[in-house]
Amino acid sequence: MESIREHLKQLSAVSVTVAKATFALEQTLCRYGPVSRSSFTSFTDGLKFLIPLKSFTTRFLLLGLDEWTIILTDMKGENPYVDAYAISRATNCSAIGVVLQEQRRELQIVERGKKVRQVQSLLDFDTWYYREEGGRLPWEDPDEYTRKSKRKRLTVEALKRYFATYTGFKVPSWNTARFSEIFGLERSVHEAQVPIVHYDTEWDL
Fold first, then answer.
1. pLDDT one-digit tens code per residue, 148-193
2. In sequence order, what DSSP letters do the residues of the chain get, joined into one string?
3. I need a surface site. Which of 42, 47, 59, 132 has the fewest CB within 10 A?
4. pTM for the complete prediction?
5. Each residue of 32-53: b (16+ CB within 10 Å) or e?
6. Each residue's pLDDT tens digit, 81-110
């Protein structure tokens, strides 16, 4: 059983309005076939659009927060950083991706369509893996990267601080969050070469 609570610990955000972000992503997805768009009046309804989680991304949820947009997808284990990168390239905006799980922590930063920073700290089977790409940004805490144990580098708490510093708002508390507009996109999967698995997903918010 997959946990929707854990799934929501993987998110990206882009520094454009939800209307612009949705249009840009829609245009990107149109290259692979027809795209359908939906709108929702509540986050709960939008989240139901993503369930169940799947083995391949078929649906995207875009959540408006002033001049920023949060992006979620329906793919198990997926941080929608690639989709944020595509929006950044199309609109020349900034983007951040984070994974906030205890055994998988990630940071990705894109500026004006260019990847400038990636950090990963994750448990790969029985070995803890850590890597950095790009120069450290002024708001990053150097102490997060110098601990002897890789397991203790890039903590969830640090990622939450980074996200708030970069975007100007905290990672949403999903049970109480309110968004200006909510859009869903469903892409064509006619080119998928293997069957798409649907996973039983627990609503455990």
1. 888 899 999 999 999 999 999 999 999 999 999 999 999 998 777 7
2. -EEHHHHTTEEEEESS-HHHHHHHHHHHHGGGS--EEEEESSHHHHHHHHPSPBSS--EEEEEEETTEEEEEESBTT--THHHHHHHHHHH--EEEEEEEETTEEEEEEEETTEEEEEEEEEEETTEEEEEEESPPPTTS-GGGG--SSGGGSS-HHHHHHHHHHHHSSPPP-TTT---S-EEEEE---TT-SSPPPBPPEE---
3. 42
4. 0.94
5. eeebeeeebeebeebbebbbeb
6. 999 999 999 999 999 999 999 999 999 999
Q: Amino acid identity of 92?
A: N
In the numeric block, the tokens 């970069």 are attached to 166
